[in-house]
Amino acid sequence: MKYTPNIENIREGKPFYVVAVCFPVDVKNERILLLKRAKTQMIHGGLWAPIGGKLEWSDLTNHAPSRDNGTVEDWLDIVELLLKREAMEEANIKVDDFKYIGSVAYVRPDGMPSVCLKFACRYLDGDIHFPDDFEEARWFACGELEDGESILGVPEEIAISLDSFKMSTTV
Question: Is the distance from CB of 122 to CB of 164 less than 8 angstroms?
Answer without folding.
Answer: no
